[in-house]
Amino acid sequence: MSTFKKRLQDDLTAAIKGRDELRSATLRMTLTAITKEEVSGETARELSDAEVLTVISREAKKRREAAEAFDRGDRPKQAAREREEGEVLAEYLPQQLSDEELDAVVADAVAQAREAGAEGPRAMGAVMKIVKPKVGDRAEGGRVAASVKRALAG
To answer: Is the dihedral of CA 46, 43, 58, 123 positive or negative?
Structure first.
């Protein structure tokens, strides 16, 4: 068993014992998503820590998107619940880059792409290829793409 999955299970046990309904429900859903990922495909397999982290980040993204949808639907209680679940999951994700840190990485990548001859909005792919390995899981793709578009436009 991966150490990440073990940590989630241990935290779930502690949340249940502490009668923390929000944390226990969130961790249960996350562990279910991990198990579903493990048994999908041809044969069942054990996920690595990196794969477990990917599942957790996908679940956190679902919570953010659901909160936005509930806000648009004028359902503030459900939106607040989704945000709280997202905060629980954020504890297990790597520290996200600040906007300033991300913009600095993007500016460096834009400079590298321009040296290689890529200019303007068409350089988006070249810049993304440089940025993605540098930021990894510390910034979601949408944030990275928006930062790259801003840097290339101005």
So the answer is: positive
